Amino acid sequence: MPLFSSQPQSTTTPNLTFIGPDAHGTIYIEDARGMRTPFFAVTIAKHSKPSLTVNRILPSGHQEPFFTSHTSSMSGTSRIDLVSRASEIKMKISYEGMRLRREFQGPTGKLSWFPSGNSGCDQKLKDKNEMVLAKLTANIGHSKEPRLEILVPCDDYLLDLVVATGLAVYRDTVKEVKQVEVVSEVIGGAFGG
């Protein structure tokens, strides 16, 4: 069974859509009719490791560990531990020209999250052939909720990789935007802005 279809996919109709996290740290899966089901519970720690903990919400309402993540600004690497698969993913942060890129090894080769749009908050996941597998719309500072859209059919392992890395990228993006806001306030204050 292929990990994802080699056929071109419509980027307007995602195969799966995840919405959130909301104010309570819940991420929902949304079906084609717009019905939402709680799917993940997210905890973000400001000063401890792991900085991101995600649990699956079972139909019973109980939670089971899915993954933890921590980004080291010193090494430029995110470490993601997939608890359910007992595996670790290292996502390297690098630059292509002036564009930030986060790369990791997938089952068929290197996968990369790239900023899309002017703000750099939204991201696209591309494979080594530049095929877009997923889109992350962060909506930081807007009233709309974050969205992670899976654009291609995936097996369970690839789906876990896309979701885990996408949520780690989202967490890092929120952190980066907040750091820029603090720096802007300091600079504005220093120059009387």
From TrEMBL:
* Organism of origin: Paraphaeosphaeria sporulosa
Q: What is this protein called?
A: Tubby C-terminal-like domain-containing protein
Question: What domain of life?
Answer: Eukaryota
